[in-house]
Specification:
Blueprint (H helix, E strand, L loop, with lengths): L5 H11 L6 H11 L5 H10 L1 H19 L1
Helix pairs in contact: 2-4, 3-4
């Protein structure tokens, strides 16, 4: 299932994937996902689409801001 909301995405990352949503994690993922030439980003778009990529970037920025404050 592709998460449609921040809460669904956060639950998937934290509970299913067991990843801590830290500002550092968000910054590292943003460095990849904001680079359209990245092979990983291109693969992500093939699998999940550009709309989901935009959502994930938005959600990572939300994590980055909330964890940095």
């Amino acid at each position: 299932m592709i998460p449609m909301t921040f809460e669904e995405w956060r639950d998937c990352i934290v509970n299913d994937c067991r990843i801590k949503l830290t500002a550092e994690f968000a910054q590292k993922r943003l460095a990849v996902y904001e680079n359209a030439k990245s092979k990983e980003t291109q693969q992500f778009v093939k699998l999940y689409g550009k709309a989901h990529l935009r959502n994930v970037i938005m959600w990572l920025k939300r994590v980055e801001v909330s964890r940095s404050a």
